[in-house]
Amino acid sequence: MNSQGIVLIADDNENNLRVLSTMLRTEGYEVRVAKNGEQVLKSVSLEKPEIILLDIHMPVMDGFETCKRLKDDINSRDIPIIFISALTETSSKVKALEMGGVDYITKPFQVEEVKVRVHTHLLLRRKTLELELTLNNIKQLQTKLIQSEKMASLGVLVAGIAHEINNPINFVYAGINSLIKNFMELEKGIKEVIEWVRQNKPEVADELENIRENYAINKRLEVIPQLAGDIKTGAIRTTEIVKGLRLFSRSENEPKTKADITESIETALLLLKNRYKNRIQIEKQYQQNLKPIRCYPGQLTQAFINLIHNAIDAIPDKGIIQIEVRETEGGISISIADDGIGMPAELLSRIYDPFFTTKAVGDGMGMGLAITHGIIERHMGNIQVSSEVNKGTLFEIFLPAN
Fold first, then answer.
1. Nearest to 261 by CA among 310, 332, 328
2. Sheet strands side by side (includes 280-286)
3. CA 92, CA 67: separation in Å to the nearest integer?
């Protein structure tokens, strides 16, 4: 027969222990006993009972002190405690309830009364836990919905910005190429004019030289191509950023397409470049001739942004982030490793929880890894993490080919 629950009975009276134990075991409960408060605390530390029947007058540590210790401990404060005592004064009952007891039964107790009260409080506790779990699930779902709406809105905004930037930057890019070409022809013509004057009008050659020096023509002829080159580099960089923003902004409804995973990683690195340049070395090992896989490129870019962003934040000074991409049986394997501060083992099971973060207030909402986990799951892939304090963290991702 399955146990109806674990009940811990604390009483220094052997007869009371025997009667209560027999009665509760008959009802299908698993029963443990203790004869003083210290035994109660030790028993609870080894395995939490679902409910405690606690006498007040006990040697070593009485019921009130025992209750206080249990309620002060985060691991045991939620265990329902029913006081069973010969004390009938109202003040004793009030004190017991104020200290956290859920009920108070006076001795001599009635067996049927104890049965009903134990059953009632166990049922209440289980329903409360179910409600708390349901509420937590609702909050998590609500959080995901809110975040999904935010990301969808952000995607539309980013797509619009990228479109608006793209047109003028195309004019800049085309214009600077034309400007460079025209300047080269102009520079050639200026040099020919100067040479002609020297050969055919030597009487004005000195004056021409003075003009060149007064207006620093030679220096300007050298600087202008450099400035034009810088503008062209900036235009190319802006074009790359716009491309990255467009890839990032693809919506939840984007169709699966065949894409090169390394392009999503490179887009993520591009968008995060200002956060790691001159500080963190990126070491990349991409297998050559990788086959494209069917995926949601925009979402994967977002996932890689989250992972690389975390790796950057985990490195307080200078460090290395290693990214490896290779084909494996049935798909693509991606690993992202950093040599940062790492995480203790007890935190690893919580890192995908919404709003869980180890960062300082204001430095992160704790949604990045939750979103990343959801994206990888949507691709029918899996993600694993390993970490060691002061040595770094490794994320390993597998994405199926289809």
1. 332
2. 280-286, 319-328, 331-338, 392-400, 382-388
3. 13
Buried b (16+ CB within 10 A) or exposed e, 261-285: bbbbbbbbbbbbeeebeeebebeee
Please give the distance of CA 43 from its chain centroid, rounded to a whole number: 37
CA distance 138 to 116: 32
Query: Domain 257-400 is classified in which CATH homologous superfamily?
Result: Histidine kinase-like ATPase, C-terminal domain (3.30.565.10)
d(CA 331, CA 53): 57
Is the Cβ–Cβ distance between 349 and 310 less than 8 Å?
Answer: no
pLDDT tens, position by position, 328-357: 988 999 999 999 999 888 787 777 665 556
Taking the alpha carbons of 239, 242, 243, 244 in that order, is the dihedral positive or negative? positive
Q: What is the CATH number of domain 6-109?
A: 3.40.50.2300
Q: Distance from CA of residue 114 to its chain's centroid?
A: 48
Residues ≥6 apart with Cβ < 8 Å to 276: 282, 312, 321
Distances (CA, A) of 21 to 12, 14, 17: 13, 10, 6
What SS3 class is residue 253? coil
Long-range contacts of 70-75 (CB under 8 A, 24+ apart): 70/40, 70/41, 70/44, 70/100, 71/99, 71/100, 75/45, 75/48
Question: Averaged over 14-19, what is the pLDDT?
Answer: 90
- The CA-to-CA distance between both ends of the chain, in Å, stands at 48
pLDDT tens for residues 25-71? 998 999 999 999 999 999 999 999 999 999 999 998 999 999 999 99
List, for residues 94-115, the tens digit of each pLDDT value. Answer: 999 999 999 999 988 888 889 9
Q: Where are the domains of the chain?
A: 6-109, 151-248, 257-400
